[in-house]
Structure formats: C-alpha cells, structure tokens
Design a protein that fits this description.
- By secondary structure, this protein is of the alpha/beta class.
- The chain has six helices and six strands.
- It has a four-stranded parallel beta sheet with strand order 5-4-3-6, sandwiched between helices.
- Helix 5 crosses helix 6.
C-alpha cells in the first residue's frame, strides 16, 4: 500500500519505545506517518510494548497503539515467517520468531520496517532506514 509516494510503515518496537520516551527523530517520523495515515504496528509489537511498560506508561502506550493500524497475524504471514526462519537458519543466521513474523508482516503487506535493530532484519529491502 503506497500513498502519495510514501510507503506505509511498520513501526518496530524499538522505534515505538523511542517515541514514547520522547526522542525527536521518532516523534517527527510518527507524526508524519499519522498525518498520512501510513503508520502500522504488528500485534507482536503491541505485545512487547505491553509486556515492557510501567503502570504509569499505560495511557501513553495505549494512545500510541490506537493511533496505528494494527497488523494481525494471518496464515500468509506465519507461512512466510517460517520460510524466512528456515532460509536464514540454513545460511547460519539465527533470527527470533518474533523478528521473522514482523519481517514477514512487512513483506506480505508491502510495508517498510522502521527500526534501529538492523541486524534483526536481514531483508534490507524492507527497511525504511539503512545502516550507516
């Protein structure tokens, strides 16, 4: 899904946390995505955010999640994630199941991934940011 020449973006948990902690780059990124209605978040990142939040962060976390389009898991995504996991394991690269599922969500839904964890996502064509 492409709108006005800008890709829709799957926000990884690290970028969501940066936003919630007030980091300027994340604030600019998310405000721009929300303005264009192109901010998505995996249900797995929702889990990670709730698992790691403090009680005083509940409202801000909930508001952040509500501002994004939630991408749920589906058969095409979990199938693709399994293929990614097996393919990288054969190359000697071990990825976590959650990272494979997030990467597969981006691939299956034509989304770019906004992350700082470049090593978690070897499919560099899916990344919004590139390593420097």
């Amino acid at each position: 899904m492409i709108r006005e020449g800008k890709p829709s973006v799957l926000i990884d948990t690290d970028v969501a946390i940066d936003f919630l902690q007030g980091k300027e780059y994340a604030k600019k990124l998310l405000e721009g995505l929300w303005e264009k209605d192109t901010a998505h978040i995996s249900i797995l990142s929702v889990y990670e955010l709730f698992a790691g939040m403090r009680e005083k962060e509940r409202k801000a976390t909930h508001d952040f999640i509500e501002a994004c389009k939630i991408e749920n898991l589906a058969l095409d995504i979990v199938s693709e994630a399994g293929e990614l996991y097996r393919g990288y394991r054969k190359k000697g690269v071990t990825l976590t199941p959650i990272d494979c599922l997030i990467m597969a969500t981006a691939a299956c839904r034509s989304l770019k991934i906004a992350t700082r964890n470049f090593k978690h996502y070897p499919e560099k064509n899916l990344l919004l940011f590139k390593e420097k």
